[in-house]
Amino acid sequence: MSASLTITLKRASKVYHEGETIAGVVVVDTTADLRHEGLTLSMEGSVNLQLSTKNTGIFDAFSNNIRPINLINTTIELAAAGKIPVGVTEIPFELPLTPRPHGPALLETYHGVFVNVLYTLKCGMKRSFLNKPLHTSCQFFVQYRPQERAPAKPVRCEITPATLRAAGGGSGARANMPKFQLYAELDSTVCALDAPLTGKIRVDECAAPIKSIELQLVRLETCGCAEGYSKDATEIQNIQVGEGDVCRGRDIPLHMVLPRLFTCPTTATPHFKIEFELNIAVVFEDDYLVTENFPILLLRSR
Amino acid sequence: MPVYYKWTSETKQKRKHDYPSLEISNHPLKIEVYNVKLSANKSFLESLQKWSSPFEELDPLLRFEQLNVENDLGPDEKIENTINYPKVWNAKRTAILNKYTTGEKLTIVSSFLPGGEKISSFSALLRQVSNLNEKVKNRLEQLDDFDESSVRKTMGLSQQEFVTKIHMLDDEIKKAWDTEQRVKAFKIAIQCSKLLSDINVMQFYPSKFVLISDVLGNFGALVYDRLKKKSFGNVDIKFQDIDSYNVPESARETCQNWMFKMASIRELLPRLYMEMSLLKCYTFISKSEIKPAIERLTKMIRGIGNPLVAIYVRVYLCNVASSLFGKESECYFNDNLKEFLEEYQQIICPNMAKKFGTQLLTADQYLSLYIPAVDWLLYGTLNYTKCKDTLLEEMLEKCDTTENSELLLCCCVSGFDSTSIIKQSTAIMDIIRNQSDHMVLLSQILSSVGEHLCHAENYCQLPSEALSQCWWKIATNMKSTENFLQVLEPWLQFACNQLSSQHINMILRGTIRYMIKCGKPAEDYCSQIQSVIKRMLKSIPDVEELFLMDAFMPLVELAQTSNARTAMAKTVLTIFFERYNAVEIEDHIIISSLMRLCCILHDSINAVTVEDENKVCAELINKFIHAVSYYDDLEQQLNFYVECRSAFIKLDSVLIALVHAVNALAVRADESRGRWLQRACAAYVFVTVPSLQCPLARAQLYLLGGQAALLTGCIGQAEANLKTLVSLIPEIPQFVQEDGQNKPTHDRVVGLLSNFLSTLLILPDNMDSNSKAYILSGFIKTMERIHWKKTDPLYYTLLLRSLDLLCEMTQESYAYHIDGVLSNDELYGSEEEFIETIESHATNICQELLVVLKSLGDAKETKKQYNLALELFWRIVRRGKLKDSSMTSLATNLWALAQKIQDSNNKFAVSI
């Protein structure tokens, strides 16, 4: 005798907005009649924070797991104790997606390194004393309702040996820097999450051959509160826009589709912050790297 | 039946018949000869079809030919506004695969192929720690094998191996797809596209591109088909009809996922390729996204620094676009071409020059790698542009202003249609002249300009001469003989079409000078010279003119080896006779040139030459012999034939043709100037015939010679010919070799000898000999001497025919005569002694026939016996003197015999 539980959501994308109703079915598939002590469905949403070892002191290290912040937690009973007949049984359910009355507002789903915002549906079937209870869970995603599109804030910059701040300490600056002049432009530093990030870069002049031009999306996660916090920048994705020694004086488009789950609207709460930055990197043939950094604001907008 | 029947023939009164007659211009038996030229592809196909129509199965040759015609139809479709780009590309695809090959070793990097050297960091580490014992190392490597992401590098692959590997990857994608391992399929596809960033072994790159773009296309189709199935089930719905509103959410979600996956590929080139291969799938999300995406991709390709890689990405983009939008996609060709032109200088940047230099490619070879791609972009652009002339002007201006513009110029010249090119020819030549010192694809450009000019119909308004001079200046400075000849070919045709023969001659002289100056033996360029000459022969309006140029023959004989000369002579003669319209050649210079060529051809024949080769040579020489005419100068004509005989002694069929020609000459000769020419002709025949191999052919020619001599009143010669023929009869074999088969001579011998017997009727008897009917008696004696099988139909048919002749000879006046020849009827005036001789012969033959009848009966050949009996009966009734009792009784006996053995079918008897 075997039985299985699955949760199927009506919406294939599993994306919901605050105030919407999550509808779906719990499918019970059993090869024999199944006696149980009650079937419950719970919805949980929480923010998990983690302090990076780099920024906390040795004494704090043991407590680098901060208590998760609960965003939503509701439970309903799908079926009272009884018997489920052999075969496939579908039990429909509907749950409203609303935050706790006095708790924090719902946040967008986000998968990061030190900050994670997760929403799950969990279904459990209690069974008699000798049988193991059955469990299943299913993630779903929360998104803000799209706002009006913010006005574009274009930004442009020129990169030459003179504009470089010798990054990476005193020894970073090269003695005989090749002569180069780059021009980069982002169409807007305020970006909608659904739209690709666009801009252009032009190599006006470059004495050394170029190996690659890359676009790096970086998240900046800040955890903690007044007494101590950690701030970490990690790479989300790196996209190559130029390969090899590209033609001089030509606009090369920058185009990056923002990955789902790993990005969310720029967020700031008392306990943590999620920010994003964009790096434009030019790698020369000898692996010498020139980068320019742009802080960007991500929004859920039309 | 040992009864002796004496034969007596009835002398008939000459009857006067008035047969209805009408005047005609043609001989009713003359075979009409159609000169069908099979040069046109279509007619060739039709003739093939004609021959293969009785077979149900399509002739394999025909099938190929049909394929060709179908392919040829491709360009025609261009005229209608719907070009089938994938189809045109397919043709191009094959051409690329055939052209860009390599003998270099190739490298493939993939994690999905067995074998090869692992380049994962793990095994690199293993190599460093080399003191690990072998066993441990092996085990660790086995562990590594399970790791899918370990990338292996297979080096030293030959081209064929490489192609197989690519096909393996293609299969691997399908396999993974079918087993629900879609991500694995995706990964393989990415790896495939990564291979395209590798430009080692550049000369294979275009082919590599074609192979891999196929793989990517297949992958794209897999994704598309699955999404389609997910959206619409098994309904066959066309791309154009898909509306994203009708797509269910789940399918749209899957599609979106693919897109996100694709967008997060780190490297630019695989990301571009994958997006292109998935471009079709945007239709499930929103169709309106596709076109902006194409425009965006067009710009993103700028990020590819390597010009060779970049242009082929553009080609792939255009291919995908054209398969989706057809005609509407032409603007993308245009955009991409423009992008390419903007980046043109990348091609010749020092960095690339260094790269192809290290791969030991010449600049020529390097630039030619771009040609198919640029051609393809230009092809779409041309269909997009309404005013081609302005486009060409723009392009040319660009060529003029940019440095090293040869690639662009080359593609323009080959891509545009002739009319535009011809209009701009002067400008193009100016550009070429200005850059000719360092131009790379010079010969290719020049020759394609030449090709275009060949299509010029009437360009008096064009300064043809100036163009040609300009070309000549450039061409003579070319270093490579091969290139020079390549360029020469179309330009010579142009000269033939447009310029005077004087000018052509100058070019030919210059060519010879160049060939001598280049210091290499002309044999090395034999085939190229040959095609130059072929081209010239085909294009010059009057073929004869060529032979009148003093530089033509030296050029033909430039190559000195016998093989080269033979091949050359054969081409020249073949094309000459194809093109030569007039029936007769009279010019002495041409005759002597052709004679020389024929001699070369003849001299090439030796013991090991194959029969077909001989046949072809003989045919050409025969054509020559038939075509030469000296009109009224018959003596000269005969001299020519004598000369030919001595020159072409090795070829029997040429000798036969000569004999026929001489016979014709003899008959044509005017009698008023005496008989000496006719005698000379007869002597020619008599002397020539014995050198033939085949006795049957000899016999035929003797007969013909005899008849011709008789016709021209040379009785002595006629007699000599016929006499030799009689002596030849025993030598005629039963079978002759023809077309590789043994064919029985039976029917031909009957025909020949019947003809011979008819001729004997009018041949005056030789008064010097002491036997009457000298030749006939000889013939009968010969017949007796041969050991015939009595039941052989050939034997008794001949006996019957002889009997016919003998009967006719007894007549007072024969059925036909030749004017001026006294036949035996007038010679003997039915002299008794003569008649007696004849009748005794007839009696003997009759007797022999009865013997045959008996042996037929013994051999149980009743049907043959019956027929023979009736034949003989008929002859007695018609020809014999029935008043004579022995004849009557013979007739009665024969009739009785016939009645006795007749079968149910007695039609023949009744007809008598």
In total, the number of strands of chain B is: 5
Unreliable stretches covering 5 or more consecutive residues of chain B: 35-40, 73-80, 118-132, 144-148
DSSP, total strands of chain A: 22
Largest interface: A-B, 27 and 30 residues
Please bin the fraction of helical residues of chain A: under 10%
Largest sheet of chain B: 3 strands, antiparallel
Structural class by sheet pairing and helices of chain A = mainly beta
CATH class of the largest domain in chain A: Mainly Beta
Query: What string, H for helix and E for strand, traces the elements of chain A in order?
Result: EEEEEEEEEEEEEEEEEEEEEE
CATH level 3 topology of the largest domain in chain A: Immunoglobulin-like
Low-confidence stretches of chain A: 168-172
Distance between the termini of chain A: 51 Å
Task: Note the total helix count of chain A.
Answer: 0
Mean pLDDT of chain B, rounded to whole units?
A: 79
* Overall shape of chain A: elongated
Subcellular location (chain B): Endosome
Protein name (chain B): VPS35 endosomal protein-sorting factor-like isoform X3
Keywords (chain B): Endosome, Protein transport, Transport
InterPro entries (chain B): VPS35L
Question: Could you describe the 3D structure shown?
Answer:
The complex is a heterodimer of chains A (302) and B (912). By secondary structure, chain A is an all-beta fold. Chain A folds into 2 domains: 141 residues, Immunoglobulin-like (Sandwich), CATH 2.60.40.640; 145 residues, Sandwich (Immunoglobulin-like). Chain A has no helices and 22 strands. In chain A, a hairpin with a 3-residue loop joins strand 9 and strand 10. Chain B is mostly helical and 912 residues long. Helices cover 66% and strands 2% of the residues of chain B. In chain B, the strands form 2 sheets. Chain B has a 3-stranded antiparallel β-sheet with strand order 1-3-2. Chain B has a two-stranded antiparallel ribbon with strand order 4-5. In chain B, strand 4 and strand 5 form a beta hairpin. In chain B, helix 32 runs antiparallel to helix 33, helix 34 runs parallel beside helix 36 and helix 41 runs antiparallel to helix 42. The radius of gyration of chain B is 42 Å and the shape is elongated. The two termini of chain B are 24 Å apart. About 4% of the residues of chain B have low confidence. At the A-B interface, strand 18 and strand 19 of A face helix 9, helix 10 and helix 11 of B.
